[in-house]
Inverse folding.
């Protein structure tokens, strides 16, 4: 291989590798979908799906629970448990597009493109 | 005034009939004879111009007619009459009739587990007057040596001011299970005049002598249905689990979950509000709703004595079908 083609080959490899890595790390979310991330501190789980009219954050948690086969306990406007992780010293907080939700999760409507995050903190 | 026989006041009506008008057209020198008659009562002298009329005793207001015939020396006569209203001014004593004890029923017995809530009823009876208060004595002794009251234990006069009569009742809140009781009643009218003690059943016109008819309380409380479930919004088709927490009672006062039939054979009726029912007596029962709506879940439990239903139904709202989401790689 000539010295002329070696830099070109390296550049092409870098571009292809970067594209592949980008494709793996960035899950495809359609325009009519929203996403939900559960941040367990040490691990994360993510869900995505279609948003329908009048869909709330709690609806997103509910349909994610069905998809991810996890349990949760939402009582008196508080997310008290996800799987076996209950609120003790730390609380499950909900964020919508980076802004913490202070009210009831079943009162906040979501739309396509929204990013919901549940954090234990 | 109690037990005092009040003598009927005789209304004495002095009727001065001079104004009847007779004689105005008769010569003063003429000799007249008078003849009085009345349909009731007595006259001091029916053949004088101004007799005294004594009204008879009456049970109710009564109208009598008195007639006067005047005759002159030529034999000519004229007659006129007038009505006399005799009123009964006798003060009457209050009393009560139709004293009875309600049989055990769901209205009074459901939701009360500490005592048998026996309801006592009566009708106040005094024409033209109303009840202002009552006193009830309940005792296991027919001599009423240690009476308790109604609705509370205190044996006292209870005001009924503002309550429309003549039907009254009291729910005794201090009795014991499986016990025989005697009871008696005293009522006060609007003038605060009391009756004598009245014993059940005392039908109208026939007071019952002491101690009257006794009654027995039931052996234990009615069932107390209850259930729990996770209070949240459910999706159409989602299975909802209801956990039974219905208490049934034994004569010793302890309770058991009705569905176990530990003391008496019970029956359940779940009504989920969407037309579906179930007779499931298990510790948990499930149901799924197909349509988004608000539903009321009712549970009725029957034991050996009666039936009670969950008094405060829970509303279940079924949410719209949600789209299916998928799990993706965290980002």
């Amino acid at each position: 291989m000539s010295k002329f083609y070696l830099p070109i080959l390296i550049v092409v490899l870098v571009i292809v590798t970067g594209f592949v890595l980008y494709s793996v790390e960035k899950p495809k979310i359609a325009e009519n979908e929203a996403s939900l991330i559960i941040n367990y501190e040490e691990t994360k789980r993510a869900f995505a799906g279609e948003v329908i009219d009048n869909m709330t954050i709690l609806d997103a948690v509910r349909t994610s629970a069905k998809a991810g086969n996890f349990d949760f306990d939402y009582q008196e406007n508080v997310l008290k448990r996800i799987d076996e992780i209950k609120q003790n010293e730390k609380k499950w907080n909900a964020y919508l597009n980076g802004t913490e939700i202070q009210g009831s999760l079943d009162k906040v409507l979501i739309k396509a493109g929204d990013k919901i995050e549940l954090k234990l903190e | 005034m109690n037990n005092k026989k009040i003598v009927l006041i005789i209304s004495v009506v002095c009727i001065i009939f001079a104004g009847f008008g007779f004689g105005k057209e008769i010569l003063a020198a003429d000799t007249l004879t008078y003849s009085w008659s009345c349909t009731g009562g007595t006259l001091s002298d029916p053949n004088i111009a101004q007799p005294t009329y004594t009204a008879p005793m009456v049970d109710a207001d009564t109208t009598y007619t008195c007639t006067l015939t005047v005759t002159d020396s030529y034999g000519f006569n004229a007659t006129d009459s007038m009505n006399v209203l005799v009123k009964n001014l006798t003060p009457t004593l209050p009393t009560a009739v139709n004293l009875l004890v309600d049989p055990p029923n769901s209205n009074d017995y459901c939701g009360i587990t500490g005592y048998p809530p026996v309801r006592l009823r009566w009708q106040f009876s005094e024409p033209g007057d109303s009840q202002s208060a009552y006193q009830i004595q309940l005792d296991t002794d027919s001599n009423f040596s240690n009476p308790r009251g109604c609705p509370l234990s205190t044996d006292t006069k209870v005001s009924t001011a503002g309550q429309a009569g003549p039907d009254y009742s009291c729910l005794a809140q201090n009795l014991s299970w499986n016990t025989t009781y005697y009871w008696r009643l005293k009522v006060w009218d609007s003038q605060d005049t009391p009756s004598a003690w009245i014993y059940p059943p005392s039908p109208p016109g026939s007071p019952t002598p002491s101690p009257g008819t006794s009654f027995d309380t039931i052996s234990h409380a009615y069932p107390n249905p209850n259930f729990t479930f996770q209070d949240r919004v459910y999706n159409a088709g989602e299975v909802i689990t209801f956990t039974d927490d219905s208490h049934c009672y034994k004569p010793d006062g302890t309770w058991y979950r009705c569905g176990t039939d530990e003391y008496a054979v019970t029956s359940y009726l779940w009504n989920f509000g969407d037309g579906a029912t179930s007779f499931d007596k298990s510790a948990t029962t499930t149901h799924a709703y197909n349509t988004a709506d608000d539903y009321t879940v009712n549970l009725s439990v029957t034991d050996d004595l009666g039936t009670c239903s969950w008094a405060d139904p829970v509303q279940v709202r079924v949410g719209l079908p949600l789209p299916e989401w998928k799990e993706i790689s965290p980002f």
